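FAQ
Q: What does a multi-component entry look like?
A: The components come first, one per line:
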Amino acid sequence: MPKEDYEIVIGLEVHCELSTKTKIFCSCSTEFGGEPNTHCCPICMAMPGTLPVLNEKVVEYAVKAGLATNCKIAQNSKNDRKNYFYPDLPKAYQISQYDMPLCYDGYVNIETEEGEKTIRLERIHIEEDAGKLNHDDYGRGTFVDLNRAGVPLIECVSKPDLRSKEEVDAYLRKLKSIFEYIEISDCKMQEGSLRADVNVSVRKKGATEFGTRTEMKNMNSFRSISRAIEYEANRQIEVLENGGEITQETLRWDDISGKTFSMRDKEDAQDYRYFPDPDLVAIRLSDEYIENIKNSLPELPESRKKRYLEEYKLIPKAANFVTSSKYYSDLFEEAIAICKNPKTASNLLMSEVARILNEREEEPDQIPFSGKELGELVELIDKGTISSSISKKVLEELFENPKSPSKIIEEKGWIQISDEGAIKEVVSKILEANPQSVADFKAGKDRALGFLVGQAMKETKGKANPQMLNQLFLEELKK
Amino acid sequence: MELYELTVHELIDKLEKGETTSEEITKSYFDRIKEKDGQVKAYVSTMEEQAIAKAKQIDSDRKAGKKLSKFAGIPIGIKDNMCITGTCTTCSSKMLENFVAPYDAMVIEKLNAEDMIYLGKMNMDEFAMGSSTENSAFFPTHNPWDLSRVPGGSSGGSAAAVASDMAPWTLGSDTGGSIRQPASLCGVVGLKPTYGMVSRFGLVAFASSLDQIGPITKDVTDSALLLNLIAGHDERDTTSIETPKKDYTKSLINDVKGMKIGVPKEYLGEGTSAEVKEAMFKVIKKYQELGATVEECSLDIGQYASAVYYILACAEASSNLGRFDGIRYGYRTENCENLKDIYKNSRSEGFGAEVKRRIILGTYVLSSGYYDAYYKKAQKVRTIIKKAYNELFEKYDLLLTPVSPTTAFKMSEKLSDPLQMYLADICTVPVNIGGLPGMSIPCDVDSEGLPIGFQLIAKPFAEETIFRAAYTYEQNTNFREEHRPTFKGGEQ
Amino acid sequence: MANITREEIIHIAKLAMLNLSEQEIEHYTKDMQEILAYAEMINQIDTSDTDETIGATEQKNKFRKDEVMEFKTREDLLQNAPSQDEGMFQIPKVIN
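Then the predicted structure of the entire assembly, as tokens:
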């Protein structure tokens, strides 16, 4: 049976580190980096006799996430212990939430080339991150660093509503964008602050039962997630086509070989022995508390999009693009406050900034300059100080060495030539060198003008003011 | 009378009058420890050098007229499951034999603020699991009233030290009777405060929803004084409860007229020895004479408390003790080539038999397929037990029961029968299940001269009622004057 | 249900990261059978209308402010480590 006859079913458990100042159960800093075991205390090191106290911001951020993803917020909630042994888990239990998550029954809408689709969220709960194991190459062993142990996470569990890697990509980008908008996480995938466990199964189209799923844990790049889904779905189809069966198991995706590998032997089947953590008390959220958080939510992408269409008259494609990331959107708003030109600002983002990011294999949160620089750049174009072709070079330079665009063009000598005398000189020179084109033009071939302007641009390394060039050529040719 | 024989309020009196110094007091305890601890073995470690240096410092501060707490320079012994910065906290386990605490327990911070002096750390059943202090990985503690018998447990070292005048008072911890039962078996006063009254921060957890720190003292007045010092809300323990600060010495009133005391008949049934029962009837009579109304009542559901207790306490313990893995602190096996070895061998070699038994029981009741039948069911029965207590306290100010169904039993008598050992807590366990305050007050000795205690139980945060009734009893009887430990039975 | 088997004890010991000798397995199997037989008395109680107790107190919403307070020194936290290097806890190589 061909591949096209199968349907891929994907569910995601997205882990997102919250950008609180302190850890979930102690007052240690959540700062990324730092010498090993320096953001630690007796509590996150699970010294005997220590007790956890829940960070109020963690609850607030999780409720924000829930409200922004259309979840219901539980008025009664609690923390549970998930018991298992691993060296990155100092208490030998992770404090998480089992049967009473803070948020449940939500959804987000995604857009792919196939159109709009609703992806349901089963739940969002709070839990603590584990520490880090460093392996050394000289065979001396493994080294445990607990700086990350106790950093707060939310886990967002989707229903198995996703059907393709494109949908997964759109869903993840949507979640990431929402969490960035509501400022609960920096969502830096490269630092692991957004990562996903991906559950994949396949079934014949039209089947009502789900197939057996496999899980790939801790995936932290869009690219590997797409590749892994594709590989794993094909692998499963192949197994089924060859009359085999899929084993429910946890797999490890290896980015280098582009394959999945089995992680645990089945003998070690886990039994997490969840039970309510007796060191922590119940979480009871009042309607008032939830209402206050609802009122404090910033403007979400859907609403910004609407505003961009109506107020700034952006075309839908541009409005969609700019609001796809809070970083784009904030950059955009900051820029147009300066340059008052939404169209050019959005065009630069959509065409040039996106292209450069793509070339650099980076995400919008890694844009090194602010809306101030972008706004100034648009202004320079509008004033005719630089041409649009120079603006591309300025943007590239902004990625390398972010500073004021006017300074960049000054240093690089990219200022547009608008001096009439200077341009006249160039025009005369080009006309002299291209008698044939002059003759063509006079014979009625308008295209010859374009060629001459192009030659002049080449001569001035793109710095000549194109309108002036045009005008002066016309004047001379008509003489 | 020797200094070490005095109660703390008597010592304070002498210090205030200038009749003695902190150094003299402290030295008298270390002399006593040298004399008696070879037999009793109440201390896991002593802190003589530090203690005497601190005592000298306080004496000179006091002489210089510096404003000091009235408890400054008063010694105390601490059960070895509470952390004191820079000193060993072993929980009487091989697992933590060399563990140096990097921080202070909340109770220690409070005692430090009073400039109190630590004599040392008290022996206990390993990780507070046991009722005889025989489960200490280092050595058992002996009962000063008969050295061939157990002092009770798990705070056996804390109770035996007070009984044998090796400490004026001590801190113990009580999960299912671990303060009250050894206090009763050693003839001293032991109080388990209401759950949430004393911060558990820095107390190495056995069963988080049941553990509570409390004082073991020579008399009721000292108990009130020590509770004053350690009680209070702590933001670092979310189960600690915000209540207005009280002065419990104000409850030391010699009057129980009009007080209503209920005696649940189930605790004076078959399981309780005749001599203990007889002692209870004498206490009841005394209270009646003093003007209290004493009535028989029923706590039928109480008989299920031990079953509930062992399910819940072991479940919590199995999880609480997961952190002892030989990675960050504690015992690590020599015998390891891979990670699994570190875990399995360190834990198997580092934990004693009883601790392993409870970890296995606790793991089992939480495991897939059994959670609902054991853990969840037990939590439901717990709700019913709490409700039954609430109903009784609508009628009575206090409940009166024995502390232990028997007096001190012989060493190793119950070691081979874990269930029998568990049932030694039958009178004390329900109080922890209910989160209630309970006090053990010595009242008599049996025919072999072994102490018997009775227990007063009140509703949550009604320690004042307990203090008043206990104080009244003490003022109108003469246990301490008439009975002292004999240290007999040493040479077998 | 109290008829807990040897195999279950072995499984439980594995979950709890304990090595048990043959003799220990035998003892603990017997102990568990006895203790669980006793514990099962709770099944006599009708709890169909009862909620389980969650936590020992009725307290709720005990939260902490999100304010950083760093612990004094790493040395104090590492002083008990059976094996350490470069400020980290050292263990035998963990294979993924």
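Q: Is there any commentary attached?
A: Sometimes. For this entry: Chain C touches chain B through 51 residues (CB under 8 Å).
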